[in-house]
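dumping this here so i dont lose it
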């Protein structure tokens, strides 16, 4: 069979091709940004997911596994920071019950950091089920601190501790939702 290519259809196809390529370049964002958005789109805390990942330049060339590590590292930094903060509050307090309680809280946040480090090890070994379990545990420790305060109603749960509790718990949920994307069902 002989294909006759007249100039007009050829010109039209070239123009169409040019139109499509320039058009798609202007519409779709670069792939890495796409992956962050795609990863966060199904997250319970979309905004926290986006801001936490966008805040780290490493996320620009990370796969989903890398994005989960970035959130976990942020959570480690948060829990370690709060553990020090609670210890500092404890040493500044003059009330012995308050001192004891805050020292326990500091230990719980330290336990959270430890669980998060175990989840990092698991991510590195592609053991996503294990990573999920460790992050779940990490997300429960801040709650233990609040429950300790609830058991002693005369002592006020410091508002700053409450704020930090919420941030860490949410970061853990963000991480869990991302790890879920890595688990093969
Ligand atoms: C804790 O996480 C929040 C939310 O991503 C972040 O803005 C903050 O910088 C973190 N703090 C530390 C000490 O890691
Ligand atoms: C925790 O974070 C606060 C503010 O983000 C910072 O001022 C403080 O130095 C940090 N503490 C530690 C132990 O990292
Ligand atoms: C504890 O007291 C020291 C010295 O006054 C102060 O620098 C520090 O910020 C206090 N810690 C907390 C968590 O408020
Ligand atoms: C600590 O503070 C609480 C609440 O103000 C008070 O009921 C308690 O007696 C105090 N404990 C000590 C050992 O001062
Ligand atoms: C929490 O940390 C303390 C030491 O800070 C440790 O003794 C304890 O076993 C840890 N708890 C868990 C459940 O890992």
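and the seq i came up w/
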């Amino acid at each position: 069979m002989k294909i006759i290519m007249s100039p007009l259809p050829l010109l039209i196809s070239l123009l169409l091709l040019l139109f499509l390529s320039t058009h798609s370049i202007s519409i779709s964002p670069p792939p890495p940004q796409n992956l962050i958005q795609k990863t966060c789109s199904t997250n319970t805390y979309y905004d926290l997911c986006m801001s936490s990942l966008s805040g780290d330049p490493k996320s620009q060339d990370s796969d989903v596994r890398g994005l989960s590590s970035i959130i976990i590292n942020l959570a480690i930094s948060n829990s370690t920071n709060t553990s020090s903060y609670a210890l500092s509050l404890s040493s500044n307090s003059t009330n012995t019950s308050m001192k004891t309680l805050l020292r326990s809280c500091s230990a719980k946040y330290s336990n959270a950091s430890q669980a998060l480090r175990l989840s990092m090890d698991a991510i590195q070994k592609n053991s996503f089920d294990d990573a999920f379990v460790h992050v779940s545990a990490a997300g429960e420790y801040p709650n233990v601190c609040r429950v300790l305060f609830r058991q002693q109603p005369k002592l006020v749960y410091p508002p700053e501790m409450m704020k930090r509790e919420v941030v860490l718990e949410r970061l853990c949920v963000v991480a869990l939702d991302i790890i879920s994307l890595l688990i093969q069902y």
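The chain has a mean pLDDT of 89.
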